[in-house]
Specification:
The complex is a heterodimer of chains A (231) and B (414). Chain A is 85% helix and 0% strand. With 231 residues, chain A is mainly alpha-helical. The relative contact order of chain A is 0.06. Chain B is α/β, with parallel strands linked by helices and 414 residues long. Classes of the chains: A mainly alpha (231), B alpha/beta (414). At the A-B interface, helix 5 and helix 6 of A face helix 6, helix 9, helix 11, helix 15 and helix 16 of B.
């Protein structure tokens, strides 16, 4: 009898005690998840109205963000996307709180680690967005400057400026996330240095004749100059 | 103003007429300008207290020393009779953003401090200035109570292309006054107008640079000051630095004009047509040196712009206009032409885009350069065999198109 108690009954009693302790937490967690879902839907609605009121879509159109989304196959406007992100952030926050409420050590440990990593994800994302906007801006500035200088490969220069800046921002974002820190910097240096080196060789060997012709024209003044006074 | 200048103003106390000369490394030419001004004062305003103010942008070639040392030693060599009058000079470096506008601001401040009755400003690189310019720029203010005297020059048909293709037609269509050289650079103005200019909060903008001329003219017209123009003859000046950036020039001048459109929207929206302004001076023809133009290279620049900047212009130009420019890149040099209508529509489209901030302002205005070069190429091609009078007729026709198309600007503005 005593042995039967110890082998069968006691574990069940312990399980029962644990269930008694765990069930209220589980119910609370389920309630939290449901509240999170409802609140998330409300947050999405509120953000959508707010962002439309401040004309976020107009601004994103102006800065070329909408165009970038369209190019990558995203058809929704920035206000819809942002409000959707806010909804899921709210729901995920409630899910995390609900999971912590269950007081399971492994889950708690994982959540702690995730919370510590979250700022890195946020900063990395921010670097990426800023890098994208800046790369578009500088790429366009380089393109216009090259066109106004009469450089025939102006398009190439504009694209090179744009992708270089974006590549740099990607490197910075990955470094922030701690993914292959040294590897990325070394890879970037090799790629960037390689491009510069390739250009140097290309101009040095392939463009030798062109450079000579160009300098001759410049120095001898073969080309008919404009004497127009614009002002 | 520095202490030395303030001290000099305290010594002089008051003056009747002031001529300002902005400068930056103009030692080669400014001596002639100073002598012309002095002779003008002696010949036309002998009984007035006159002063020349040189506002310098930190020249390193001794411009200010030349101003101090220049003068007419023997008046008998240029005038049969003259009264010895006082000719005062102030040469001072200006402060603020480097540019012509900042130099003018210092001149306005000195004019205000000396309580002058009439002022004029003339460029320091002029080779064709004569004493008569001083009379023509000042007398309408002193005698006829005009507030603003714009210059009218005899210029080569390819000279002043920004003026002829954008600034004059646009200013005339907007504000309804036919001021032929709104950015001429040499102006006469009253003390009231100088004080008005000083009260405006524009000295940290492009007005402080190349934008000053159009700002002075537009402000005078839009604020109902009495405006006239004076025929000064030929405008010959030192050749500009070949490295000076056309797109920067275009950005500052056109940008200032577009900014003024927003400032004075109420003044131009209801204006229709245009009327001439009173003109002083005796008209005569002048032999002008030929201007060399590389038409092929200009068309190449236009084609390069159209090929590469489509993504920049897509929200600025209408689809039809952009397709027209694209088709033009495929045409031969003989057939290359940007008609007046297409050009007026282009300028208005850029003005609306700048007003609505559809694009970064600098990118927008600098991207106008290839289209402007294309228009200049078209104009050069069209007027290769034309006389000065025929060219003027063509500019007149362009102005009328700007006036006719103003409705589209009004519609798209708000």
């Amino acid at each position: 009898m005593n042995i039967l108690d110890r082998i069968i009954v006691e574990p069940f009693e312990r399980l029962y005690e644990k269930l008694l302790f765990f069930l209220p937490n589980l119910l609370t967690s389920l309630l939290l998840v449901m509240i999170g879902i409802f609140l998330g839907i409300f947050v999405k609605w509120a953000f959508l109205r707010l962002l439309r009121a401040v004309n976020l879509d107009g601004l994103s159109q102006k800065f070329g963000i909408q165009e970038a989304f369209a190019r990558s196959g995203i058809k929704e406007s920035l206000s819809v996307l942002t409000s959707r992100v806010m909804k899921w952030l709210t729901i995920i926050t409630f899910i995390i709180v609900a999971m912590q409420n269950l007081t399971i050590p492994t889950v708690e440990h994982l959540i702690d680690k995730m919370f510590l990593y979250l700022p890195n994800i946020f900063i990395g994302g921010l670097i990426l967005i800023l890098g994208y906007v800046l790369s578009n801006f500088l790429g366009r500035a380089a393109l216009i400057a090259a066109v106004n200088a009469g450089i025939k490969s102006a398009g190439l220069i504009g694209r090179a400026a744009k992708y270089t800046v974006f590549l740099l921002s990607c490197t910075m974002a990955l470094e922030q996330l701690g993914i292959g820190k040294d590897t990325i910097i070394i890879a970037f240096s090799i790629v960037f240095g390689g491009i510069v080196f390739a250009f140097a060789i290309a101009f040095g060997l392939g463009g030798r004749d062109f450079a000579r012709d160009y300098l001759e024209k410049r120095l001898k003044g073969d080309e008919k100059k404009d004497e127009i006074n614009h002002l | 103003m520095n202490r030395e200048v303030l001290q000099k103003i305290n010594e002089i106390k008051e003056a009747d007429i002031l001529v300002g000369v902005p400068s930056y490394n103009n030692a080669r030419t400014i001596g002639h300008v100073v002598r012309a001004v002095e002779a003008g004062f002696a010949k036309y305003f002998p009984d007035r207290k006159t002063i020349l103010v040189n506002s310098d942008g930190g020249s390193t070639d001794g411009t200010m020393e030349v101003v101090h040392n220049s003068g007419i030693d023997d008046f008998r060599s240029i005038l049969f009779s003259h009264t010895t009058s006082s000719f005062l000079k102030i040469a001072t470096p200006y402060h603020g953003i480097p540019g012509k506008g900042s130099a003018f601001r210092t001149i306005f401040q000195i004019a205000d401090a000396l309580k002058v009755k009439a002022c004029a400003v003339v460029d320091s690189d002029l080779r064709s200035i004569t004493p008569e310019w001083i009379e023509l720029l000042i007398k309408p203010v002193v005698v006829d109570n005009f507030d603003y005297v714009a210059p009218l020059y005899q210029r080569h048909k390819y000279d002043g292309t920004i003026t002829n293709s954008i600034i004059y037609p646009l200013t005339r269509a907007l504000y309804g006054r036919r001021v032929r050289q709104p950015i001429g650079g040499d102006f006469g103005f009253s003390a009231d107008l100088a004080r008005f200019y000083l009260t405006q909060n524009v000295w940290e903008t492009d007005v402080a640079r190349y934008g000053i001329d159009i700002w002075m003219t537009t402000s005078a017209i839009a604020n109902n000051f009495k405006v006239c123009q004076a025929f000064l003859g030929a405008k010959i000046h030192d050749p500009k630095d070949p490295g000076s950036d056309l797109s920067a020039m275009l950005y500052q001048v056109v940008g200032s004009t577009f900014d003024l459109m927003s400032t004075y929207a109420d003044a131009w929206k209801d204006m229709t047509g245009s009327r001439p302004v009173p003109t002083f001076g005796f008209h005569y023809d002048v032999g002008l040196e030929p201007v060399s133009v590389n038409l092929e290279r200009m068309i190449e620049r236009f084609c390069l712009g159209v090929r590469e900047l489509g993504s920049v212009w897509k929200d600025v130009l209408s689809r039809g206009l952009f397709e027209f420019f694209t088709d033009l890149t495929a045409s031969s040099q003989e057939d290359f032409a940007i008609p007046d209508g297409a050009w007026a529509e282009t300028v208005y489209s850029f003005a609306v885009a700048a007003h609505k901030k559809l694009l970064n302002r600098e990118h927008l205005l600098r991207s106008l350069t290839p289209l402007y070069i294309g228009r200049v190429a078209s104009f050069v091609k069209e007027t290769q065999e034309s006389s000065a009078v025929e060219v003027e007729d063509k500019i007149e026709a362009l102005c009328r198109v700007f006036e006719e198309k103003k409705d589209s600007l009004r519609r798209n503005w708000d």
